[in-house]
Amino acid sequence: KRIGAGGGVVVIGLGRFGKSLALELESDGMEVLGIDADPRPVQAVAGRLTHVVQADATDAEAMRQLSVHEFDRAVVAIGSSLEASVLAAFVLRGLHVPHIWAKATTKAQAQILEQVGVEHVVRPEHEMGRRTAHLVRGKMLDYI
Ligand code: ATP
């Protein structure tokens, strides 16, 4: 069976967020394809992630050759390059990947990704800041 056929997740960008996401999904038993344009993060996860390749996710033809269109989920985990993040999401849309998540660092990036048609946009720093506030408030209550 080919990877991606009948399910599976493509994780684009193996920085801190993408790497931990990809490893967590694989340890949950999902089929994961990790992609990064830089050889270093690819090397770093090579022993732990079954399927990992070095490729530019903004290159539609390269993504097609990796059978990205056969996956039903994809996550764009590129934060700092707005251009790469938006282009990668656009390529996934063009390949008709049914469910797309993307990480955004700024509110503007989140809005652009939504405009491109990304179904789920997450803002980890923003969301964790709010969540941590709840934890801090909870802890404070213990002391008052
Ligand atoms: P972190 O998750 O560590 O906070 P970040 O949000 O700062 O990451 P970057 O470090 O900019 O995001 O990007 C995450 C990863 O995405 C990097 O390893 C980078 O090489 C990769 N990446 C950037 N552009 C592309 C691209 N066009 N195709 C594939 N991977 C890419």
Automatic annotation (TrEMBL):
One of its GO terms (molecular function) is monoatomic cation transmembrane transporter activity. It comes from the Bacteria. Coiled coil: none annotated. Residues 6-122 form the RCK N-terminal domain. GO terms for biological process: potassium ion transport. This is Trk system potassium uptake protein TrkA. It comes from Yimella lutea. The chain holds residues 3 to 146 of 221 of the full protein.
